[in-house]
C-alpha cells in the first residue's frame, strides 16, 4: 500500500511538471495595461518568455586557497610568546571594557555606589590581567632562552 501511494505521488508530480512546461503564456493588452495569462483572449498574442522557472545565476568565481602565513601559526612560536600574546589581548580587552564602562551608567545604577562597584570590578580585572602579563614577562627574563 505504501509503495502504491509513493508511486502515485511521483506520477502526479511528474505529470504536473510536464503540464507546467507545456503551458503556453499569452501577452494581452487590457485597458492599456500588459497582462500575461494562460487563457487567450481577443487582444492576446503568444508571448516568447523562454522556459519558465529555469533561470540560472552566473557561476561564482573560484577561490584560490592560500597557505596561512608562517608567523600566524602558533606551533612555530615558543609557548611563552603565545601565552604572553594571549595575556596582552586579555589586558587590552579589560582596559577597553573599563573605558566603555566608565562612559555608561545603567538604569539600575541610579545609586552611585552600584556604579562604583561595577567600575571597581572592571578595574580589578584590568589589574589582574596586568599582573598576569608582568608575571609572564618575569618568567621570560629568568629563562636562558630570553637572553638569546
**What kind of assembly state do the chains in view correspond to?**
single chain
- What is the general shape? elongated
> Which structural class matches the secondary elements?
mainly alpha
Strand segment tally: 3
Write the layout of secondary structure elements.
Layout lengths: L1 H21 L3 E5 L2 E5 L6 E3 L32 H25 L8 H31 L6
Antiparallel strand pairs: 1-2, 1-3
Helix pairs in contact: 2-3
Quick tags:
mainly alpha; signal; DUF4124 domain-containing protein
Describe it for me?
The chain has 148 residues and is mainly alpha-helical. Among the domains are: 20-48, no CATH class; 78-142. The protein has 3 helices and 3 strands. It has a 3-stranded antiparallel β-sheet, with no helix packed on it. A hairpin with a 2-residue loop joins strand 1 (26-30) and strand 2. Residues 97-109, 134-148 have a biased composition (Basic and acidic residues). Residues 1-22 form the signal peptide.
Provide a short characterization of the protein structure.
By secondary structure, this protein is mostly helical.
Amino acid at each position: 500500500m505504501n509503495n502504491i501511494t509513493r508511486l502515485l505521488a511521483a506520477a502526479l508530480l511528474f505529470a504536473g511538471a510536464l503540464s507546467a512546461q507545456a503551458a503556453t503564456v499569452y501577452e494581452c493588452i487590457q485597458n492599456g495595461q500588459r497582462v500575461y495569462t494562460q487563457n487567450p483572449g481577443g487582444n492576446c498574442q503568444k508571448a516568447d518568455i523562454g522556459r519558465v522557472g529555469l533561470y540560472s545565476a552566473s557561476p561564482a568565481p573560484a577561490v584560490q586557497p592560500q597557505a596561512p602565513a608562517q608567523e600566524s601559526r602558533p606551533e612555530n612560536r615558543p609557548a611563552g610568546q603565545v601565552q604572553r600574546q594571549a595575556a596582552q589581548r586579555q589586558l587590552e580587552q579589560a582596559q577597553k571594557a573599563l573605558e566603555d564602562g566608565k562612559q555608561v551608567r545603567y538604569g539600575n545604577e541610579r545609586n552611585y555606589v552600584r556604579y562604583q562597584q561595577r567600575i571597581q570590578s572592571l578595574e580589578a580585572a584590568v589589574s589582574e590581567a596586568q599582573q598576569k602579563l608582568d608575571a609572564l614577562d618575569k618568567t621570560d627574563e629568568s629563562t636562558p632562552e630570553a637572553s638569546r
